[in-house]
Protein backbone atom coordinates (compact mmCIF):
# COMPACT_ATOMS: atom_id res chain seq x y z
CA UNK A 1 0.00 0.00 0.00
CA UNK A 2 2.89 2.36 0.73
CA UNK A 3 4.15 1.90 -2.81
CA UNK A 4 0.66 2.68 -4.13
CA UNK A 5 0.48 5.87 -2.04
CA UNK A 6 3.90 6.93 -3.22
CA UNK A 7 3.01 6.38 -6.87
CA UNK A 8 -0.23 8.30 -6.47
CA UNK A 9 1.51 11.24 -4.77
CA UNK A 10 4.11 11.32 -7.53
CA UNK A 11 1.43 11.38 -10.21
CA UNK A 12 -0.26 14.30 -8.47
CA UNK A 13 2.99 16.25 -8.10
CA UNK A 14 3.67 16.03 -11.85
CA UNK A 15 0.81 18.41 -12.84
CA UNK A 16 2.05 20.83 -10.17
CA UNK A 17 5.53 20.83 -11.69
CA UNK A 18 4.16 21.40 -15.19
CA UNK A 19 1.86 24.20 -13.95
CA UNK A 20 4.66 25.98 -12.11
CA UNK A 21 7.09 25.72 -15.05
CA UNK A 22 4.50 27.05 -17.51
CA UNK A 23 3.64 29.89 -15.14
CA UNK A 24 7.22 31.02 -14.89
CA UNK A 25 7.83 30.57 -18.60
CA UNK A 26 5.02 33.04 -19.23
CA UNK A 27 6.99 35.60 -17.23
CA UNK A 28 9.89 35.36 -19.61
CA UNK A 29 7.76 36.53 -22.53
CA UNK A 30 8.15 40.24 -23.13
CA UNK A 31 5.23 42.63 -22.90
CA UNK A 32 4.48 44.61 -26.01
CA UNK A 33 3.08 48.07 -25.59
CA UNK A 34 -0.64 48.60 -26.11
CA UNK A 35 -1.54 51.45 -28.47
CA UNK A 36 -2.91 54.61 -26.92
CA UNK A 37 -6.29 56.20 -27.58
CA UNK A 38 -7.00 58.12 -30.77
CA UNK A 39 -7.62 61.39 -28.88
CA UNK A 40 -4.32 61.22 -27.02
CA UNK A 41 -2.46 60.19 -30.16
CA UNK A 42 -3.71 63.29 -31.99
CA UNK A 43 -2.55 65.53 -29.14
CA UNK A 44 0.85 63.82 -29.11
CA UNK A 45 1.24 64.29 -32.85
CA UNK A 46 0.63 68.00 -32.41
CA UNK A 47 3.78 67.98 -30.25
CA UNK A 48 5.62 65.91 -32.87
CA UNK A 49 5.93 62.97 -30.48
CA UNK A 50 6.60 59.85 -32.52
CA UNK A 51 5.70 57.02 -30.12
CA UNK A 52 2.74 56.38 -27.85
CA UNK A 53 1.52 53.62 -25.51
CA UNK A 54 -1.12 52.88 -22.89
CA UNK A 55 0.42 52.34 -19.48
CA UNK A 56 -0.81 49.34 -17.52
CA UNK A 57 -2.27 51.09 -14.48
CA UNK A 58 -4.41 54.11 -13.54
CA UNK A 59 -5.77 54.42 -17.08
CA UNK A 60 -2.65 56.41 -17.97
CA UNK A 61 -1.12 57.01 -21.40
CA UNK A 62 2.38 58.02 -22.37
CA UNK A 63 3.92 59.50 -25.53
CA UNK A 64 7.56 60.33 -26.23
CA UNK A 65 10.22 61.28 -28.73
CA UNK A 66 13.98 61.48 -28.24
CA UNK A 67 17.24 62.22 -30.00
CA UNK A 68 20.89 62.48 -29.03
CA UNK A 69 22.04 66.04 -28.40
CA UNK A 70 25.66 65.13 -27.72
CA UNK A 71 27.53 61.96 -26.83
CA UNK A 72 26.73 62.67 -23.19
CA UNK A 73 23.10 63.80 -23.30
CA UNK A 74 19.75 62.79 -24.73
CA UNK A 75 16.82 65.13 -25.29
CA UNK A 76 13.55 63.46 -24.35
CA UNK A 77 10.11 64.95 -24.88
CA UNK A 78 7.20 63.28 -23.12
CA UNK A 79 3.47 63.71 -22.70
CA UNK A 80 1.62 62.01 -19.87
CA UNK A 81 -2.14 61.59 -19.55
CA UNK A 82 -4.13 60.36 -16.54
CA UNK A 83 -7.62 60.49 -15.05
CA UNK A 84 -8.15 62.81 -12.10
CA UNK A 85 -11.88 62.65 -11.24
CA UNK A 86 -11.74 64.67 -8.01
CA UNK A 87 -12.07 68.49 -7.82
CA UNK A 88 -8.48 68.66 -6.63
CA UNK A 89 -5.49 66.34 -6.67
CA UNK A 90 -2.30 65.72 -8.56
CA UNK A 91 -0.69 63.59 -11.24
CA UNK A 92 2.99 62.82 -11.63
CA UNK A 93 5.53 61.30 -13.97
CA UNK A 94 9.24 60.86 -13.42
CA UNK A 95 12.43 58.90 -14.00
CA UNK A 96 14.53 57.06 -11.45
CA UNK A 97 18.31 56.91 -11.91
CA UNK A 98 18.58 53.97 -9.49
CA UNK A 99 18.72 50.26 -10.21
CA UNK A 100 14.96 49.74 -10.12
CA UNK A 101 11.81 51.67 -11.02
CA UNK A 102 10.39 52.79 -7.69
CA UNK A 103 9.00 55.89 -6.04
CA UNK A 104 11.94 56.61 -3.72
CA UNK A 105 14.69 58.35 -5.68
CA UNK A 106 12.45 59.44 -8.54
CA UNK A 107 13.00 62.79 -10.22
CA UNK A 108 9.36 63.71 -10.68
CA UNK A 109 7.27 66.27 -12.52
CA UNK A 110 4.03 66.84 -10.62
CA UNK A 111 1.02 68.79 -11.84
CA UNK A 112 -1.27 69.89 -8.98
CA UNK A 113 -4.93 70.66 -9.54
CA UNK A 114 -6.46 73.15 -7.10
CA UNK A 115 -10.08 73.31 -6.04
CA UNK A 116 -10.74 76.33 -8.26
CA UNK A 117 -9.66 74.37 -11.36
CA UNK A 118 -6.23 76.01 -11.75
CA UNK A 119 -3.06 73.98 -12.19
CA UNK A 120 0.50 74.34 -10.95
CA UNK A 121 3.36 72.21 -12.25
CA UNK A 122 6.82 71.81 -10.72
CA UNK A 123 9.70 69.37 -10.23
CA UNK A 124 10.24 67.29 -7.09
CA UNK A 125 12.88 64.96 -5.68
CA UNK A 126 11.07 62.06 -3.99
CA UNK A 127 13.12 60.92 -0.99
CA UNK A 128 12.71 58.46 1.88
CA UNK A 129 11.64 61.33 4.09
CA UNK A 130 8.59 61.75 1.87
CA UNK A 131 7.67 58.11 2.47
CA UNK A 132 8.00 58.69 6.21
CA UNK A 133 5.42 61.48 6.15
CA UNK A 134 7.43 64.61 5.45
CA UNK A 135 5.91 67.16 3.07
CA UNK A 136 6.92 66.89 -0.56
CA UNK A 137 8.24 70.29 -1.59
CA UNK A 138 9.35 71.55 -5.01
CA UNK A 139 13.04 71.21 -5.79
CA UNK A 140 15.14 72.10 -8.80
CA UNK A 141 15.90 69.33 -11.31
CA UNK A 142 18.45 70.65 -13.79
CA UNK A 143 17.68 68.34 -16.70
CA UNK A 144 14.00 69.39 -16.92
CA UNK A 145 14.05 72.34 -19.33
CA UNK A 146 10.35 72.80 -20.08
CA UNK A 147 7.01 71.59 -18.67
CA UNK A 148 3.35 72.51 -18.95
CA UNK A 149 -0.17 71.27 -18.29
CA UNK A 150 -1.96 70.60 -21.56
CA UNK A 151 -5.59 70.34 -22.55
CA UNK A 152 -8.02 67.61 -21.52
CA UNK A 153 -8.37 64.39 -23.48
CA UNK A 154 -11.72 62.64 -22.91
CA UNK A 155 -12.04 63.99 -19.34
CA UNK A 156 -8.38 63.24 -18.63
CA UNK A 157 -5.64 65.77 -18.11
CA UNK A 158 -2.26 65.79 -19.79
CA UNK A 159 1.11 67.32 -19.09
CA UNK A 160 4.12 67.86 -21.31
CA UNK A 161 7.83 68.07 -20.47
CA UNK A 162 11.20 68.30 -22.18
CA UNK A 163 14.21 66.72 -20.49
CA UNK A 164 17.90 66.62 -21.35
CA UNK A 165 19.08 63.43 -19.67
CA UNK A 166 22.75 62.63 -19.03
CA UNK A 167 23.37 59.42 -20.97
CA UNK A 168 25.84 58.06 -18.40
CA UNK A 169 22.99 57.94 -15.84
CA UNK A 170 19.88 57.29 -17.96
CA UNK A 171 19.65 54.61 -20.62
CA UNK A 172 16.79 55.01 -23.12
CA UNK A 173 16.73 51.23 -23.69
CA UNK A 174 16.23 50.58 -19.96
CA UNK A 175 14.64 53.71 -18.55
CA UNK A 176 13.11 53.45 -15.07
CA UNK A 177 9.98 55.55 -15.21
CA UNK A 178 7.24 56.05 -12.62
CA UNK A 179 3.76 57.55 -12.84
CA UNK A 180 1.19 58.28 -10.17
CA UNK A 181 -2.11 59.93 -9.29
CA UNK A 182 -3.17 61.32 -5.92
CA UNK A 183 -6.39 62.91 -4.74
CA UNK A 184 -5.31 65.03 -1.76
CA UNK A 185 -3.34 68.24 -1.46
CA UNK A 186 -2.57 70.50 1.50
CA UNK A 187 -1.43 74.12 1.23
CA UNK A 188 -0.76 73.53 -2.45
CA UNK A 189 1.48 70.51 -1.82
CA UNK A 190 0.72 66.93 -2.88
CA UNK A 191 -0.14 64.42 -0.17
CA UNK A 192 0.24 60.65 -0.27
CA UNK A 193 -1.43 58.59 -2.97
CA UNK A 194 -3.67 55.54 -2.33
CA UNK A 195 -1.87 52.25 -1.68
CA UNK A 196 -3.93 50.01 -3.95
CA UNK A 197 -2.08 47.70 -6.33
CA UNK A 198 -2.90 50.04 -9.20
CA UNK A 199 -0.86 52.73 -7.48
CA UNK A 200 1.88 50.45 -6.18
CA UNK A 201 2.40 48.91 -9.64
CA UNK A 202 2.69 52.22 -11.48
CA UNK A 203 6.32 51.64 -12.46
CA UNK A 204 8.16 49.87 -15.24
CA UNK A 205 11.42 49.65 -17.13
CA UNK A 206 10.71 50.92 -20.64
CA UNK A 207 12.69 50.59 -23.84
CA UNK A 208 12.07 53.83 -25.72
CA UNK A 209 13.83 52.46 -28.80
CA UNK A 210 11.52 49.43 -29.16
CA UNK A 211 7.98 50.85 -29.25
CA UNK A 212 7.85 51.11 -25.47
CA UNK A 213 8.51 47.46 -24.71
CA UNK A 214 8.46 47.11 -20.93
CA UNK A 215 9.80 44.65 -18.37
CA UNK A 216 8.32 46.02 -15.16
CA UNK A 217 5.05 44.07 -15.26
CA UNK A 218 6.50 40.82 -13.82
CA UNK A 219 5.05 41.58 -10.39
CA UNK A 220 1.55 41.71 -11.85
CA UNK A 221 2.07 38.30 -13.46
CA UNK A 222 3.52 36.90 -10.25
CA UNK A 223 0.52 38.14 -8.28
CA UNK A 224 -1.81 36.33 -10.66
CA UNK A 225 0.27 33.15 -10.37
CA UNK A 226 0.30 33.60 -6.59
CA UNK A 227 -3.48 33.91 -6.50
CA UNK A 228 -4.15 30.95 -8.82
CA UNK A 229 -1.79 28.62 -6.96
CA UNK A 230 -3.27 29.55 -3.58
CA UNK A 231 -6.83 29.06 -4.82
CA UNK A 232 -5.96 25.65 -6.29
CA UNK A 233 -3.78 24.48 -3.40
CA UNK A 234 -5.18 25.92 -0.17
CA UNK A 235 -8.66 26.75 -1.41
CA UNK A 236 -9.61 23.68 -3.48
CA UNK A 237 -7.41 20.61 -2.96
CA UNK A 238 -7.32 20.86 0.85
CA UNK A 239 -11.15 21.01 1.13
CA UNK A 240 -11.43 18.04 -1.24
CA UNK A 241 -9.04 16.09 0.99
CA UNK A 242 -11.11 16.93 4.07
CA UNK A 243 -14.37 15.91 2.33
CA UNK A 244 -12.78 12.60 1.34
CA UNK A 245 -11.73 11.82 4.92
CA UNK A 246 -15.04 12.96 6.39
CA UNK A 247 -17.38 10.86 4.24
CA UNK A 248 -15.36 7.97 2.85
CA UNK A 249 -13.30 6.79 5.81
CA UNK A 250 -15.89 4.91 7.89
CA UNK A 251 -19.40 6.24 7.33
CA UNK A 252 -21.55 6.59 5.24
CA UNK A 253 -19.06 5.03 2.78
CA UNK A 254 -16.05 2.93 3.60
CA UNK A 255 -13.51 3.01 0.79
CA UNK A 256 -10.50 1.36 2.35
CA UNK A 257 -7.72 2.16 1.48
CA UNK A 258 -8.89 4.42 -1.38
CA UNK A 259 -10.06 7.19 0.95
CA UNK A 260 -6.64 7.36 2.61
CA UNK A 261 -4.81 7.53 -0.72
CA UNK A 262 -7.11 10.31 -1.95
CA UNK A 263 -6.89 12.18 1.35
CA UNK A 264 -3.10 12.05 1.47
CA UNK A 265 -2.78 12.83 -2.25
CA UNK A 266 -5.06 15.88 -2.09
CA UNK A 267 -3.55 17.18 1.14
CA UNK A 268 0.05 16.73 0.06
CA UNK A 269 -0.49 18.15 -3.42
CA UNK A 270 -2.57 21.03 -2.04
CA UNK A 271 0.15 21.77 0.49
CA UNK A 272 2.89 21.78 -2.17
CA UNK A 273 0.87 23.95 -4.56
CA UNK A 274 -0.15 26.29 -1.73
CA UNK A 275 3.38 26.58 -0.37
CA UNK A 276 4.59 27.48 -3.86
CA UNK A 277 2.02 30.27 -4.00
CA UNK A 278 2.93 31.31 -0.46
CA UNK A 279 6.64 31.52 -1.36
CA UNK A 280 5.79 33.70 -4.37
CA UNK A 281 3.76 35.92 -2.02
CA UNK A 282 6.75 36.29 0.30
CA UNK A 283 8.91 37.25 -2.67
CA UNK A 284 6.36 39.84 -3.78
CA UNK A 285 6.20 41.28 -0.27
CA UNK A 286 9.97 41.53 -0.15
CA UNK A 287 10.17 43.26 -3.54
CA UNK A 288 7.51 45.79 -2.50
CA UNK A 289 9.70 47.41 0.10
CA UNK A 290 7.49 50.35 0.96
CA UNK A 291 4.00 48.81 0.86
CA UNK A 292 2.82 45.76 2.77
CA UNK A 293 -0.64 44.25 3.12
CA UNK A 294 -0.17 43.26 6.75
CA UNK A 295 -3.40 41.34 7.41
CA UNK A 296 -3.08 39.26 4.23
CA UNK A 297 0.56 38.51 4.98
CA UNK A 298 -0.10 37.52 8.60
CA UNK A 299 -2.97 35.24 7.61
CA UNK A 300 -0.71 33.65 5.01
CA UNK A 301 2.01 32.96 7.59
CA UNK A 302 -0.62 31.47 9.92
CA UNK A 303 -1.96 29.24 7.13
CA UNK A 304 1.54 28.01 6.31
CA UNK A 305 2.29 27.29 9.98
CA UNK A 306 -0.95 25.41 10.71
CA UNK A 307 -0.85 23.45 7.46
CA UNK A 308 2.74 22.42 8.20
CA UNK A 309 1.60 21.15 11.62
CA UNK A 310 -1.14 19.20 9.85
CA UNK A 311 1.39 17.70 7.42
CA UNK A 312 3.45 16.44 10.36
CA UNK A 313 0.60 13.98 10.94
CA UNK A 314 2.24 11.82 8.27
CA UNK A 315 5.09 11.06 10.66
CA UNK A 316 3.76 11.85 14.14
CA UNK A 317 0.33 10.22 14.01
CA UNK A 318 -0.11 7.85 16.98
CA UNK A 319 -1.09 4.25 16.46
CA UNK A 320 -4.72 3.19 16.57
CA UNK A 321 -4.02 1.24 19.75
CA UNK A 322 -2.56 4.23 21.60
CA UNK A 323 -4.70 5.57 24.44
CA UNK A 324 -4.44 9.20 23.30
CA UNK A 325 -5.31 8.47 19.66
CA UNK A 326 -8.87 9.78 20.08
CA UNK A 327 -7.58 13.12 21.45
CA UNK A 328 -5.16 13.39 18.55
CA UNK A 329 -8.04 12.77 16.14
CA UNK A 330 -10.05 15.57 17.76
CA UNK A 331 -7.14 18.00 17.50
CA UNK A 332 -6.42 17.00 13.88
CA UNK A 333 -10.05 17.42 12.82
CA UNK A 334 -10.73 20.73 14.57
CA UNK A 335 -7.42 22.22 13.42
CA UNK A 336 -8.26 21.21 9.85
CA UNK A 337 -11.71 22.85 9.94
CA UNK A 338 -10.30 26.00 11.56
CA UNK A 339 -7.57 26.14 8.94
CA UNK A 340 -10.18 26.02 6.19
CA UNK A 341 -12.00 29.03 7.65
CA UNK A 342 -8.76 31.06 7.73
CA UNK A 343 -7.94 30.00 4.17
CA UNK A 344 -11.32 31.12 2.83
CA UNK A 345 -11.04 34.49 4.57
CA UNK A 346 -7.53 35.12 3.28
CA UNK A 347 -8.33 34.11 -0.29
CA UNK A 348 -11.12 36.69 -0.41
CA UNK A 349 -8.75 39.24 1.14
CA UNK A 350 -6.26 38.48 -1.61
CA UNK A 351 -8.90 38.82 -4.32
CA UNK A 352 -9.86 42.22 -2.89
CA UNK A 353 -6.22 43.35 -2.84
CA UNK A 354 -5.59 42.01 -6.32
CA UNK A 355 -8.63 43.91 -7.61
CA UNK A 356 -9.35 40.98 -9.85
CA UNK A 357 -12.93 42.11 -10.29
CA UNK A 358 -16.07 39.99 -10.37
CA UNK A 359 -14.41 37.21 -12.40
CA UNK A 360 -12.04 36.23 -9.57
CA UNK A 361 -14.60 36.78 -6.84
CA UNK A 362 -17.53 34.93 -8.37
CA UNK A 363 -15.26 32.28 -9.83
CA UNK A 364 -14.09 31.31 -6.36
CA UNK A 365 -17.59 31.69 -4.90
CA UNK A 366 -18.75 29.22 -7.56
CA UNK A 367 -15.91 26.89 -6.59
CA UNK A 368 -16.91 27.05 -2.92
CA UNK A 369 -20.58 26.62 -3.81
CA UNK A 370 -19.78 23.42 -5.70
CA UNK A 371 -17.68 22.02 -2.86
CA UNK A 372 -20.28 23.13 -0.33
CA UNK A 373 -23.09 21.49 -2.27
CA UNK A 374 -21.18 18.22 -2.44
CA UNK A 375 -20.38 18.35 1.28
CA UNK A 376 -23.96 19.28 2.18
CA UNK A 377 -25.39 16.47 0.06
CA UNK A 378 -23.03 13.94 1.63
CA UNK A 379 -23.84 15.27 5.11
CA UNK A 380 -27.58 14.91 4.54
CA UNK A 381 -27.07 11.42 3.14
CA UNK A 382 -24.93 10.55 6.20
CA UNK A 383 -27.65 11.51 8.66
CA UNK A 384 -30.41 9.86 6.64
CA UNK A 385 -28.45 6.63 6.52
CA UNK A 386 -27.57 6.91 10.21
CA UNK A 387 -31.22 7.22 11.27
CA UNK A 388 -32.29 4.45 8.86
CA UNK A 389 -29.68 2.08 10.29
CA UNK A 390 -30.63 3.07 13.82
CA UNK A 391 -34.30 2.44 13.06
CA UNK A 392 -33.48 -0.88 11.42
CA UNK A 393 -31.35 -1.97 14.37
CA UNK A 394 -34.11 -0.97 16.79
CA UNK A 395 -36.70 -2.89 14.80
CA UNK A 396 -34.45 -5.96 14.72
CA UNK A 397 -33.86 -5.74 18.48
CA UNK A 398 -37.59 -5.60 19.16
CA UNK A 399 -38.17 -8.54 16.85
CA UNK A 400 -35.55 -10.65 18.58
CA UNK A 401 -36.94 -10.00 22.10
CA UNK A 402 -38.69 -13.14 23.56
CA UNK A 403 -42.45 -13.00 23.81
CA UNK A 404 -43.85 -12.82 27.39
CA UNK A 405 -45.19 -16.11 28.80
CA UNK A 406 -48.92 -16.50 29.11
CA UNK A 407 -50.39 -16.75 32.61
UniProtKB/TrEMBL annotation:
<keyword id="KW-0472">Membrane</keyword>
<feature type="binding site" description="axial binding residue">
    <location>
        <position position="332"/>
    </location>
    <ligand>
        <name>heme b</name>
    </ligand>
</feature>
<feature type="transmembrane region" description="Helical">
    <location>
        <begin position="227"/>
        <end position="248"/>
    </location>
</feature>
<dbReference type="InterPro" id="IPR006593">
    <property type="entry name" value="Cyt_b561/ferric_Rdtase_TM"/>
</dbReference>
<feature type="signal peptide">
    <location>
        <begin position="1"/>
        <end position="30"/>
    </location>
</feature>
<feature type="binding site" description="axial binding residue">
    <location>
        <position position="296"/>
    </location>
    <ligand>
        <name>heme b</name>
    </ligand>
</feature>
<feature type="binding site" description="axial binding residue">
    <location>
        <position position="263"/>
    </location>
    <ligand>
        <name>heme b</name>
    </ligand>
</feature>
<dbReference type="GO" id="GO:0046872">
    <property type="term" value="F:metal ion binding"/>
</dbReference>
<keyword id="KW-1133">Transmembrane helix</keyword>
<keyword id="KW-0249">Electron transport</keyword>
<keyword id="KW-0408">Iron</keyword>
<keyword id="KW-0732">Signal</keyword>
<protein>
    <recommendedName>
        <fullName>Cytochrome b561 and DOMON domain-containing protein</fullName>
    </recommendedName>
</protein>
<dbReference type="InterPro" id="IPR005018">
    <property type="entry name" value="DOMON_domain"/>
</dbReference>
<dbReference type="InterPro" id="IPR045265">
    <property type="entry name" value="AIR12_DOMON"/>
</dbReference>
<dbReference type="InterPro" id="IPR017214">
    <property type="entry name" value="UCP037471"/>
</dbReference>
<feature type="binding site" description="axial binding residue">
    <location>
        <position position="226"/>
    </location>
    <ligand>
        <name>heme b</name>
    </ligand>
</feature>
<keyword id="KW-0812">Transmembrane</keyword>
<feature type="transmembrane region" description="Helical">
    <location>
        <begin position="299"/>
        <end position="316"/>
    </location>
</feature>
<feature type="transmembrane region" description="Helical">
    <location>
        <begin position="328"/>
        <end position="348"/>
    </location>
</feature>
<feature type="transmembrane region" description="Helical">
    <location>
        <begin position="260"/>
        <end position="279"/>
    </location>
</feature>
<dbReference type="GO" id="GO:0016020">
    <property type="term" value="C:membrane"/>
</dbReference>
<dbReference type="Pfam" id="PF04526">
    <property type="entry name" value="DUF568"/>
</dbReference>
<keyword id="KW-0813">Transport</keyword>
<feature type="domain" description="DOMON">
    <location>
        <begin position="58"/>
        <end position="182"/>
    </location>
</feature>
<keyword id="KW-0479">Metal-binding</keyword>
<feature type="transmembrane region" description="Helical">
    <location>
        <begin position="368"/>
        <end position="389"/>
    </location>
</feature>
<feature type="domain" description="Cytochrome b561">
    <location>
        <begin position="190"/>
        <end position="387"/>
    </location>
</feature>
